[in-house]
Design brief:
It is built from 6 helices and 18 strands. The protein is an alpha+beta fold and 312 residues long. A hairpin with a 4-residue loop joins strand 9 and strand 10.
Protein backbone atom coordinates (compact mmCIF):
# COMPACT_ATOMS: atom_id res chain seq x y z
CA UNK A 1 0.00 0.00 0.00
CA UNK A 2 2.85 2.39 0.72
CA UNK A 3 3.88 2.61 -2.93
CA UNK A 4 0.30 3.31 -3.99
CA UNK A 5 0.04 6.07 -1.40
CA UNK A 6 3.32 7.66 -2.51
CA UNK A 7 2.37 7.53 -6.20
CA UNK A 8 -0.96 9.21 -5.46
CA UNK A 9 0.69 11.92 -3.36
CA UNK A 10 3.24 12.65 -6.09
CA UNK A 11 0.52 12.67 -8.72
CA UNK A 12 -1.44 15.31 -6.81
CA UNK A 13 1.64 17.44 -6.25
CA UNK A 14 2.86 17.15 -9.85
CA UNK A 15 -0.51 18.03 -11.31
CA UNK A 16 0.12 21.73 -10.72
CA UNK A 17 3.90 21.53 -10.47
CA UNK A 18 3.87 22.08 -6.73
CA UNK A 19 7.21 20.36 -6.27
CA UNK A 20 8.86 17.05 -5.47
CA UNK A 21 8.94 15.22 -2.13
CA UNK A 22 12.07 13.17 -1.50
CA UNK A 23 11.80 9.57 -0.22
CA UNK A 24 13.23 10.56 3.16
CA UNK A 25 10.66 13.35 3.57
CA UNK A 26 7.86 11.04 2.44
CA UNK A 27 8.86 8.45 5.03
CA UNK A 28 8.79 11.05 7.78
CA UNK A 29 5.35 12.28 6.70
CA UNK A 30 4.11 8.69 6.36
CA UNK A 31 5.15 7.85 9.91
CA UNK A 32 3.34 10.85 11.38
CA UNK A 33 0.26 10.35 9.23
CA UNK A 34 -0.04 6.71 10.29
CA UNK A 35 0.35 7.64 13.94
CA UNK A 36 -2.34 10.32 13.70
CA UNK A 37 -4.82 7.89 12.18
CA UNK A 38 -3.89 5.22 14.73
CA UNK A 39 -4.62 7.59 17.60
CA UNK A 40 -7.92 8.52 15.96
CA UNK A 41 -9.01 4.87 16.29
CA UNK A 42 -9.26 5.19 20.06
CA UNK A 43 -11.25 8.41 19.82
CA UNK A 44 -13.58 6.88 17.23
CA UNK A 45 -14.07 3.76 19.32
CA UNK A 46 -15.00 5.90 22.32
CA UNK A 47 -17.60 7.77 20.25
CA UNK A 48 -19.05 4.49 18.97
CA UNK A 49 -19.41 3.12 22.51
CA UNK A 50 -21.04 6.36 23.67
CA UNK A 51 -23.46 6.15 20.75
CA UNK A 52 -24.36 2.59 21.71
CA UNK A 53 -24.96 3.62 25.30
CA UNK A 54 -27.54 6.19 24.24
CA UNK A 55 -28.96 3.78 21.64
CA UNK A 56 -28.12 5.85 18.58
CA UNK A 57 -25.84 3.22 17.03
CA UNK A 58 -26.96 0.72 14.41
CA UNK A 59 -26.92 -3.07 14.30
CA UNK A 60 -26.04 -5.72 11.73
CA UNK A 61 -24.36 -3.95 8.80
CA UNK A 62 -24.59 -0.64 10.64
CA UNK A 63 -22.71 -1.99 13.65
CA UNK A 64 -19.51 0.07 13.72
CA UNK A 65 -18.04 -1.37 16.91
CA UNK A 66 -17.03 -4.75 15.46
CA UNK A 67 -15.01 -3.51 12.45
CA UNK A 68 -13.35 -0.85 14.60
CA UNK A 69 -12.48 -3.47 17.23
CA UNK A 70 -11.01 -5.76 14.59
CA UNK A 71 -8.90 -2.92 13.22
CA UNK A 72 -7.55 -2.05 16.66
CA UNK A 73 -6.94 -5.65 17.73
CA UNK A 74 -4.26 -6.00 15.05
CA UNK A 75 -2.11 -3.96 17.44
CA UNK A 76 -3.15 -5.82 20.60
CA UNK A 77 -0.47 -8.02 22.18
CA UNK A 78 -0.02 -10.17 25.26
CA UNK A 79 3.57 -10.64 26.46
CA UNK A 80 5.35 -11.81 29.57
CA UNK A 81 7.21 -8.99 31.27
CA UNK A 82 10.96 -9.28 31.81
CA UNK A 83 12.25 -9.10 35.37
CA UNK A 84 14.69 -6.29 36.12
CA UNK A 85 15.28 -6.81 39.82
CA UNK A 86 13.28 -8.33 42.69
CA UNK A 87 9.63 -7.42 42.01
CA UNK A 88 10.44 -4.89 39.27
CA UNK A 89 9.67 -5.63 35.62
CA UNK A 90 10.39 -3.82 32.38
CA UNK A 91 7.36 -2.39 30.62
CA UNK A 92 7.03 -3.51 26.97
CA UNK A 93 9.96 -2.32 24.85
CA UNK A 94 11.79 -3.41 21.67
CA UNK A 95 14.47 -5.09 23.80
CA UNK A 96 12.06 -7.14 25.94
CA UNK A 97 8.85 -7.75 23.97
CA UNK A 98 9.71 -6.33 20.55
CA UNK A 99 7.41 -3.30 20.82
CA UNK A 100 6.77 -0.22 22.91
CA UNK A 101 3.38 -0.07 24.61
CA UNK A 102 1.09 2.69 23.35
CA UNK A 103 -1.55 1.86 25.94
CA UNK A 104 -1.39 -0.80 28.69
CA UNK A 105 -4.82 -2.38 28.84
CA UNK A 106 -4.30 -4.91 31.60
CA UNK A 107 -1.63 -6.54 33.77
CA UNK A 108 -2.37 -10.11 34.84
CA UNK A 109 -0.53 -12.27 37.33
CA UNK A 110 -0.05 -15.97 38.00
CA UNK A 111 0.88 -15.56 41.67
CA UNK A 112 0.76 -19.22 42.75
CA UNK A 113 4.13 -20.99 42.48
CA UNK A 114 3.71 -24.75 42.11
CA UNK A 115 7.36 -25.75 42.01
CA UNK A 116 10.90 -24.44 41.80
CA UNK A 117 14.15 -26.25 41.32
CA UNK A 118 17.01 -27.03 38.96
CA UNK A 119 17.00 -29.40 35.99
CA UNK A 120 19.25 -32.40 36.41
CA UNK A 121 19.67 -33.33 32.75
CA UNK A 122 18.92 -32.05 29.25
CA UNK A 123 16.16 -33.71 27.24
CA UNK A 124 14.84 -32.02 24.09
CA UNK A 125 11.42 -30.50 24.72
CA UNK A 126 11.34 -31.65 28.33
CA UNK A 127 12.08 -30.47 31.84
CA UNK A 128 13.83 -33.18 33.82
CA UNK A 129 14.46 -33.13 37.56
CA UNK A 130 15.03 -36.40 39.42
CA UNK A 131 13.67 -34.76 42.58
CA UNK A 132 10.86 -32.89 40.82
CA UNK A 133 7.78 -34.71 42.19
CA UNK A 134 5.82 -33.00 39.42
CA UNK A 135 2.73 -35.22 39.69
CA UNK A 136 2.61 -34.86 43.46
CA UNK A 137 2.75 -31.07 43.22
CA UNK A 138 -0.38 -30.91 41.05
CA UNK A 139 1.23 -29.58 37.89
CA UNK A 140 -1.13 -29.88 34.89
CA UNK A 141 -1.04 -29.02 31.17
CA UNK A 142 -1.24 -25.28 30.59
CA UNK A 143 0.80 -24.27 33.62
CA UNK A 144 3.63 -21.84 32.90
CA UNK A 145 7.27 -22.92 33.08
CA UNK A 146 10.06 -20.34 33.21
CA UNK A 147 13.75 -20.98 32.80
CA UNK A 148 14.86 -18.58 35.52
CA UNK A 149 18.45 -18.75 34.28
CA UNK A 150 17.74 -17.62 30.71
CA UNK A 151 14.33 -15.95 31.11
CA UNK A 152 12.66 -18.17 28.48
CA UNK A 153 9.01 -19.05 29.08
CA UNK A 154 6.80 -21.87 27.84
CA UNK A 155 3.85 -24.00 28.97
CA UNK A 156 3.31 -27.56 30.12
CA UNK A 157 2.05 -29.98 27.44
CA UNK A 158 1.97 -33.08 29.61
CA UNK A 159 3.31 -34.32 32.92
CA UNK A 160 4.96 -37.60 31.91
CA UNK A 161 5.91 -38.67 35.43
CA UNK A 162 7.22 -37.25 38.68
CA UNK A 163 10.59 -36.42 37.13
CA UNK A 164 9.74 -35.30 33.58
CA UNK A 165 7.48 -32.66 32.06
CA UNK A 166 6.85 -32.30 28.32
CA UNK A 167 7.03 -28.63 27.26
CA UNK A 168 5.55 -26.65 24.38
CA UNK A 169 9.01 -25.39 23.41
CA UNK A 170 12.56 -26.40 24.20
CA UNK A 171 13.78 -23.86 26.77
CA UNK A 172 16.22 -26.01 28.74
CA UNK A 173 19.35 -26.39 26.64
CA UNK A 174 21.87 -26.74 29.44
CA UNK A 175 22.19 -27.85 33.02
CA UNK A 176 22.00 -26.73 35.72
CA UNK A 177 19.21 -24.23 34.90
CA UNK A 178 16.84 -22.98 37.57
CA UNK A 179 13.12 -23.12 36.85
CA UNK A 180 9.81 -21.95 38.24
CA UNK A 181 6.38 -23.44 37.51
CA UNK A 182 3.34 -21.22 38.00
CA UNK A 183 -0.31 -22.18 38.08
CA UNK A 184 -2.42 -21.08 35.11
CA UNK A 185 -5.59 -21.82 37.06
CA UNK A 186 -5.13 -18.79 39.32
CA UNK A 187 -4.83 -15.82 36.97
CA UNK A 188 -5.70 -12.54 38.68
CA UNK A 189 -5.83 -8.98 37.43
CA UNK A 190 -3.46 -6.53 39.05
CA UNK A 191 -4.80 -3.12 39.94
CA UNK A 192 -2.82 -0.09 38.87
CA UNK A 193 -2.20 2.36 41.69
CA UNK A 194 -0.28 5.60 41.82
CA UNK A 195 3.27 5.73 43.14
CA UNK A 196 2.13 8.03 45.93
CA UNK A 197 -0.67 5.70 47.03
CA UNK A 198 1.16 2.38 47.13
CA UNK A 199 3.00 3.19 50.39
CA UNK A 200 -0.30 3.96 52.10
CA UNK A 201 -1.76 0.67 50.91
CA UNK A 202 1.27 -1.36 52.00
CA UNK A 203 1.23 0.17 55.48
CA UNK A 204 -2.24 -1.16 56.24
CA UNK A 205 -3.09 -4.81 56.89
CA UNK A 206 -6.52 -4.20 55.41
CA UNK A 207 -5.46 -2.65 52.11
CA UNK A 208 -2.03 -4.18 51.44
CA UNK A 209 -1.92 -6.04 48.08
CA UNK A 210 -2.09 -9.83 48.30
CA UNK A 211 -1.60 -12.66 45.82
CA UNK A 212 -5.39 -12.75 45.41
CA UNK A 213 -5.57 -8.99 44.90
CA UNK A 214 -2.19 -7.80 43.54
CA UNK A 215 -1.32 -4.28 42.47
CA UNK A 216 1.33 -2.56 40.40
CA UNK A 217 2.83 0.86 39.87
CA UNK A 218 4.28 2.28 36.68
CA UNK A 219 7.21 4.69 36.82
CA UNK A 220 8.95 5.43 33.55
CA UNK A 221 9.53 2.04 31.95
CA UNK A 222 9.47 0.09 35.22
CA UNK A 223 6.45 -1.85 36.48
CA UNK A 224 6.69 -2.74 40.17
CA UNK A 225 4.50 -5.60 41.39
CA UNK A 226 2.96 -5.99 44.86
CA UNK A 227 3.12 -8.13 46.90
CA UNK A 228 6.87 -8.53 46.41
CA UNK A 229 6.52 -12.33 46.14
CA UNK A 230 5.52 -11.77 42.50
CA UNK A 231 9.01 -11.51 41.09
CA UNK A 232 9.62 -14.04 38.31
CA UNK A 233 9.22 -13.86 34.56
CA UNK A 234 6.24 -15.99 33.64
CA UNK A 235 4.21 -14.65 36.54
CA UNK A 236 3.30 -11.30 34.97
CA UNK A 237 1.61 -10.84 31.61
CA UNK A 238 0.92 -7.47 30.03
CA UNK A 239 -1.96 -6.93 27.59
CA UNK A 240 -1.31 -3.78 25.62
CA UNK A 241 -1.74 -1.90 22.38
CA UNK A 242 1.62 -1.54 20.69
CA UNK A 243 2.85 1.30 18.51
CA UNK A 244 2.52 0.67 14.76
CA UNK A 245 5.70 -0.25 12.94
CA UNK A 246 7.42 2.71 11.29
CA UNK A 247 6.59 2.67 7.56
CA UNK A 248 9.44 3.00 5.11
CA UNK A 249 9.29 3.32 1.32
CA UNK A 250 12.51 1.71 0.08
CA UNK A 251 14.02 2.13 -3.37
CA UNK A 252 16.92 1.61 -5.72
CA UNK A 253 18.39 4.28 -7.97
CA UNK A 254 18.60 4.06 -11.74
CA UNK A 255 21.46 5.68 -13.64
CA UNK A 256 19.33 8.79 -14.04
CA UNK A 257 18.99 9.05 -10.28
CA UNK A 258 15.21 8.55 -10.19
CA UNK A 259 14.27 6.34 -7.21
CA UNK A 260 12.40 3.14 -8.08
CA UNK A 261 10.35 1.29 -5.50
CA UNK A 262 12.03 -1.87 -4.18
CA UNK A 263 10.25 -3.79 -1.44
CA UNK A 264 12.97 -6.43 -1.29
CA UNK A 265 15.15 -4.12 0.80
CA UNK A 266 15.68 -5.41 4.37
CA UNK A 267 14.36 -2.22 5.97
CA UNK A 268 11.17 -2.07 3.87
CA UNK A 269 8.01 -1.66 5.93
CA UNK A 270 4.49 -1.16 4.62
CA UNK A 271 1.72 0.67 6.47
CA UNK A 272 0.00 -1.44 9.11
CA UNK A 273 -3.35 0.27 8.66
CA UNK A 274 -6.14 -1.43 6.68
CA UNK A 275 -6.60 -0.72 2.97
CA UNK A 276 -9.74 1.32 3.59
CA UNK A 277 -7.64 3.95 5.36
CA UNK A 278 -5.46 4.60 2.31
CA UNK A 279 -7.33 7.80 1.46
CA UNK A 280 -6.76 9.07 5.00
CA UNK A 281 -3.05 8.47 4.70
CA UNK A 282 -2.95 10.33 1.38
CA UNK A 283 -4.85 13.29 2.84
CA UNK A 284 -2.66 13.53 5.93
CA UNK A 285 0.58 13.23 3.97
CA UNK A 286 -0.58 15.90 1.52
CA UNK A 287 -1.14 18.23 4.45
CA UNK A 288 2.47 17.74 5.53
CA UNK A 289 3.64 18.22 1.96
CA UNK A 290 1.68 21.44 1.62
CA UNK A 291 3.30 22.84 4.75
CA UNK A 292 6.73 21.72 3.55
CA UNK A 293 6.50 23.41 0.14
CA UNK A 294 4.48 26.32 1.54
CA UNK A 295 1.50 25.74 -0.68
CA UNK A 296 -1.72 26.47 1.18
CA UNK A 297 -3.78 25.12 -1.72
CA UNK A 298 -2.40 21.62 -1.15
CA UNK A 299 -3.23 21.79 2.55
CA UNK A 300 -6.72 23.12 1.88
CA UNK A 301 -7.37 20.51 -0.79
CA UNK A 302 -6.33 17.60 1.43
CA UNK A 303 -8.27 18.94 4.43
CA UNK A 304 -11.37 19.40 2.29
CA UNK A 305 -11.12 15.83 1.00
CA UNK A 306 -10.64 14.53 4.53
CA UNK A 307 -13.66 16.44 5.81
CA UNK A 308 -15.72 15.27 2.84
CA UNK A 309 -14.95 11.64 3.66
CA UNK A 310 -15.80 12.12 7.33
CA UNK A 311 -19.09 13.92 6.60
CA UNK A 312 -20.56 12.35 3.45
Amino acid sequence: MINSVRNTVLSVLNKNNYGYISPSDFNLYAQNAQMQIYEDYFDSYNKIINAENVRTAGTDYADLEQPMSETMEVFLRTDYLTKIAANKFSSPSPLTTGYYAYYILDVQCKPVTLATGTNTSVSAGNLVNTAGAFLSKGIVPGDVVTNLTTGLVTTVVAVLNNTTIQLASNIFLATPNSYGIFSSATIVQAEKVSNGKINLLNNSNLTAPTIQFPAYTLQGEVITMYPTSIQNKGQVECIYFRFPKVPKWTYINLSSGEPVFDQSQPDYQDFELPEEDEYKLISRILQYCGVSIRETEVVQFSMAKEQQEQNP
